[in-house]
Write a structure and sequence with these properties.
Blueprint: H1 10-23, E1 27-34, E2 40-46, H2 49-53, H3 55-66
Length: 70
């Protein structure tokens, strides 16, 4: 049995999520900037295809909640 305390390197994690996204229509990767180490900062969104099509709508709702003064 493999130990449950092993950490994966950044590149290994991103490689896994890229494979996951390539094999499923319910997984989307988005670039949200750069890490402090200069890597692409990638968010993984796992949801229904319906929700993934409405990401921009949900982002706008989230921005209104996060910044109600705007």
């Amino acid at each position: 049995m493999a130990p449950d305390h092993k950490l994966f390197l950044y590149d290994q994690s991103i490689s896994y999520f890229k494979k996951l996204a390539a094999s499923s229509k319910n997984v989307k990767l988005i670039n949200v900037g750069k890490t402090s180490y200069g890597h692409e900062w990638t968010a993984v969104i796992i949801s229904s295809q319906d929700n993934l099509k409405k990401l921009d709508k949900y982002r706008q709702i989230n921005m209104r909640i996060a910044h109600p003064e705007v």
